[in-house]
């Protein structure tokens, strides 16, 4: 503590020195800026004075222990000290007088400092010597295929704060301390204890060797080596399945992945699923290995094409019909195995000519056009010769003469008559509109039987005409 009563305290200090003399428990030394010789002793031993360095620092060597101390005697102000215990850092030298490390000492006693002379009553007591930290390497945890957690435990700090701690790792068994790859954290830790360090960027299925370390001002301490192996990724073999058709349920034919180690498969979509039509649909398998210590769960995807299904049309050849009978639901009666609509050719209500093996066609358009194709089917129908003049109409509809050699006429209570003459194969020979009583010329027709279709008043009549 600085005081402005410097002269008084200086005199008081000198008086105390003279009074105490050799009876004090503290050695008395007059340390000068230059010319100091001899030895200094205290409770810790005898220190031989070595002289000054270029910065006017006084050096002593402990006569029985291998270290040196120095005391800086350059002060610019007079100060009166009081009873105190002050911790200072002194430089420890090796036998070649080269700096080795810094160690703490405790200085206690009374002192008066001033100018180039220090009147000191002191003892130097070594508090502790610094040492490198003591570290143990613990088992590695949290192991995956590319990362792990290194674990260490600092059991002794070495007398100084820990400024860095972490892990060295390598694929070389027995690698040297400080070699390999370092992952660490810097800080200022004052206590012992466990710590963790994340290790990333590792290769799957690889054995690594690890050492924990910690650093203080005295150096770096290393733990013993431990090893671990990153998890491997199972190899899944699964090819894109062959195309299927809508309506086919997923089975072991498509969901047939295998792996190079034992485990269980879980598929998405699951077994028994019916996929909609479409190309490039994703199938995924998640694989969980039985040995989770050495293998990691993994997954794989493939794609499958699902083609539209073709509806099944059920439609048989209709029974024969006679000439003049219009097509109806009796003949046009196709069905399909899915919902949709039919379009027939020829359409309902059509009167076919006489003839065998005439084609009827049904075009089917499914309601679910996303999953089903449009399709069609044909059947055959025979139209045989026949008459359909009801008995009640025979007195109002007469073809005469019949048979004929050159012409005929139609008699009856009809008007707006249109006639069609066809041969037995259904080929139309004549189609015209006539009046009642008008003669129809058939001289050019060959001898044979012909079909005459008469349409009048919304009715259709069919009868035979014999040409001689």
Task: Describe the model.
With 468 residues, the protein is mainly beta. It has five domains: 6-126, no CATH class; 134-229, Immunoglobulins (Immunoglobulin-like); 236-307, Immunoglobulin-like (Sandwich), CATH 2.60.40; 313-384, Sandwich (Immunoglobulin-like), CATH 2.60.40; 391-467, Immunoglobulin-like (Sandwich). 3% of the residues lie in helices and 51% in strands. It has one helix spanning 6-20; strands at residues 27-32, 39-42, 45-52, 57-62, 68-72, 79-80, 84-93, 99-114, 117-126, 134-141, 148-156, 162-170, 181-189, 193-199, 207-216, 219-222, 226-229, 236-237, 244-245, 258-259, 263-268, 278-289, 298-307, 313-314, 321-322, 335-336, 340-345, 355-366, 375-384, 398-400, 407-411, 417-422, 428-434, 439-441, 448-456, 459-467. Strands 1, 6, 7, 8 and 9 form a five-stranded antiparallel β-sheet that branches. Strands 12, 13, 15, 16 and 17 form a five-stranded antiparallel β-sheet that branches. The termini are far apart. Mean pLDDT is 77; it is low at 1-45, 51-63 and 65-128.
Strand element count: 36
Overall domain count:
5
Summing up helix and strand content along with how strands pair, one would put the structural category as mainly beta
Taken from the alpha-carbon principal axes, the silhouette is: rod-shaped
- Terminus-to-terminus distance: 159 Å
Strand content: over 45%
Q: What is the typical, i.e. mean, pLDDT?
A: 77
Task: Specify the number of helices.
Answer: 1
Report the C-alpha radius of gyration, rounded: 59 Å
Low-confidence stretches: 1-45, 51-63, 65-128
**How many strands, which pairing sense, and closed or not: the largest β-sheet?**
5 strands, antiparallel
Percent range of helical residues: under 10%
């Amino acid at each position: 503590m600085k005081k402005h009563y410097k002269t008084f305290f200086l005199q008081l200090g000198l008086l105390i020195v003279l009074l105490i003399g050799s009876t004090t428990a503290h050695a008395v030394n007059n340390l000068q800026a230059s010319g100091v010789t001899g030895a200094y002793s205290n409770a810790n031993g005898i220190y031989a004075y070595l002289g000054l360095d270029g910065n006017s620092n006084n050096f002593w060597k402990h006569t029985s222990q291998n270290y040196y101390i120095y005391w800086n005697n350059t002060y610019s102000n007079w100060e009166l000290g009081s009873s105190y215990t002050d911790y200072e850092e002194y430089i420890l030298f090796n036998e070649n007088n080269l700096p080795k490390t810094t160690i703490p000492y405790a200085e206690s006693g009374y002192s008066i400092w001033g100018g180039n002379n220090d009147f000191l009553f002191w003892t130097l007591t070594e508090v502790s010597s610094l040492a490198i930290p003591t570290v143990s390497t613990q088992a590695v945890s949290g192991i995956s295929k590319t990362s792990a957690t290194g674990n260490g435990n600092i059991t002794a700090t070495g007398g100084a704060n820990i400024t860095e701690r972490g892990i060295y790792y390598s694929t070389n068994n027995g690698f040297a301390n400080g070699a390999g790859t370092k992952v660490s954290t810097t800080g200022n830790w004052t206590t012992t204890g466990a710590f963790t360090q994340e290790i990333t960027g590792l290769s799957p299925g690889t054995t690594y060797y690890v050492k924990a370390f910690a650093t203080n001002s005295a150096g770096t301490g290393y733990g013993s080596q431990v090893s671990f192996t990153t998890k491997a990724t199972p190899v899944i073999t699964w090819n894109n399945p062959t195309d299927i058709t809508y309506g086919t349920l997923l089975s072991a034919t498509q969901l047939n992945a295998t792996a190079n180690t034992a485990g269980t498969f879980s598929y998405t979509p699951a077994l028994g699923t019916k996929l909609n039509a479409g190309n490039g649909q994703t199938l995924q398998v998640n694989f969980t290995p039985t040995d989770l210590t050495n293998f990691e769960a993994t997954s794989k995807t493939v794609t499958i094409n699902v083609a539209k299904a073709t509806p099944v049309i059920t439609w048989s050849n209709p029974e024969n019909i006679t000439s003049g009978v219009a097509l109806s639901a009796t003949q046009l009666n196709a069905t399909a195995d899915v919902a949709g609509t039919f379009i027939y050719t020829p359409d309902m209500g059509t009167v076919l000519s006489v003839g065998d093996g005439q084609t009827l066609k049904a075009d089917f358009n499914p309601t679910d056009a996303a999953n089903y194709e449009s399709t069609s089917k044909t059947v055959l129908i025979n139209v045989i010769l026949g008459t359909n003049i009801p008995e009640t109409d025979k007195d109002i509809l007469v073809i005469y003469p019949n048979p004929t050699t050159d012409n005929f006429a139609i008699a009856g209570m009809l008007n707006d008559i249109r006639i069609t003459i066809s041969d037995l194969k259904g080929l139309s020979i004549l189609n015209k509109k006539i009046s009642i009583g008008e003669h129809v010329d058939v001289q050019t027709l060959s001898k044979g039987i012909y079909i005459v279709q008469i349409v009048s008043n919304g009715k259709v009549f069919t009868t035979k005409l014999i040409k001689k």
